[in-house]
Amino acid sequence: MRRRFVLFTVVLLFCWAGSLCWRGGAALICTAWGPEEVLASCLSSPPENEEPALSTLFSTACKLAARVDPAKPGLLRSVLPVVDVADTVVLAAPAAILTVAPQREEADPPFVAIYNTHTGETYALTDGVERVKGAGGVVQAAAVLEEGLKNRNIAVLRSDKVHDVSYAASYLESEKTVRDFVYLNPELDGIFDVHRDSTLPRGRATVNIQGRDVARVLIIVGSDERQPFPAWRQNLEFAERIAAQADALYPGLCAGVRVKAGRYNQYLSPRALLLEIGGVNNTLEEAEIAAMLFADVLADVLQALKEEDKAAANRMQPSPLLRNNSSHSGG
Asked: Are residues 268 and 224 in the same domain?
């Protein structure tokens, strides 16, 4: 057994030092072991009957080759299996991760997260192009949405991380961000991925609200057409409630709800949605106004849902009288 660990450790260190070290080392570990074994090794759990020095060397080799640092959110979960919302899985994690997100009090305001999968999307009438490298107009629209929500006493966690350096892999990259959101803040009341429509013609891109031209907002909901997504109708119900409030508050602002075949990271939360704020043929200013108005819509819905969730939780609690009686019952 000792000889096998020594040999495997040398191979891992060689993979790390070579030109293909990162990719080869990670592939070797993931092929040889399952996620639980990788996790255990990276957390320095010494194999039975092994000397401490050898165990430390072995663990170090695993970390170098697999690039797993349990102190950094996101990297640890890169070796763990994908978990749908429908499943309930308790994962052992280091105290450093568990203490990153503090407990929120019951009286806290609604708490949401915002990000951009296609970070480079922008508004051609302002920037002259449809896409830029880095942060495009949709990132600014997301920032205005954040500001508007905060003005309405909604707590916001926003990531401006660039996810579309490789456009084909953008959802794989943004999934890591959403997993970080959910892992560190399991009680999020909403997660919003801000995009802009790529095909909307100028004639249907704006609506006049209070004397101003405003971009329209389309809500996209993923489905189970291509991949398992058993709870997608919960996301649809959330979207329809938002659309109804938008129609009541600012008629014409919301362009409706559209169900599409992809999952768009929405399987990670029953209140995750994709928001297309305007289209390529809008100006940035029109999109910013839309984001500010839509923040009012979201705030109304989120606050109402928070009250409903609180009322439902209270109904599940036994009344003080019942608790009193139960404490005096028995011998």
From this structure: yes
Q: Is the pTM here over 0.90, yes or no?
A: no
Tell me, yes or no, whether 328 lies in a domain.
no
Number of domains forming the structure of the chain: 2
User: Sign (positive/negative) of CA torsion 222, 223, 228, 232?
Assistant: positive
Q: How many residues does the chain have?
A: 331
Farthest-apart Cα atoms in the chain, separation: 81
- Residues 44, 119, single domain; the answer is no
Q: Is residue 322 part of a domain?
A: no
From CA 21, how far away is CA 15, in angstroms rounded? 4
Q: Pick the more confident residue, 91 or 302.
A: 302
Query: What's the N-to-C CA distance of the chain in angstroms?
Result: 59
141 and 60 in a common domain? no
Q: Is the per-residue pLDDT at 100 higher than 80?
A: no
DSSP H stretches of helix in 34-188:
35-42, 52-66, 95-98, 124-127, 137-151, 170-184
Tell me which residue range forms the domain holding 25.
2-79
Specify the DSSP element, H or E, that contains 209: strand 206-209
In one-letter notation, the amino acid at residue 12 is L
